[in-house]
């Protein structure tokens, strides 16, 4: 499970890499066709929304408290916290990943702001 956790963490980090975020040919294959997200703004985004020109802005986020939980055959729930290095704001995040036997793709993501403590 540790090897899989490291792999999913690497994929999550890729999705936060600005060079990947700006390249639909690299970003798109990481998302399943049925992907959707509830962003920190409360808005719902589809894969098409994420791949639309200019939708994904630059980010400078650090991942911490990463954990992986099996939820079914070939699917896992990733949970973690991000800290925005520019603003210091934190968010709890969760993603569901599924494997088609060859590669892992994200099918759901949610970001929830953490109130200032």
Automatic annotation (TrEMBL):
InterPro entries linked: DUF4440, NTF2-like_dom_sf
Residues annotated as domain DUF4440: 8-106
Positions in coiled-coil regions: none
Name of the molecule in the record: DUF4440 domain-containing protein
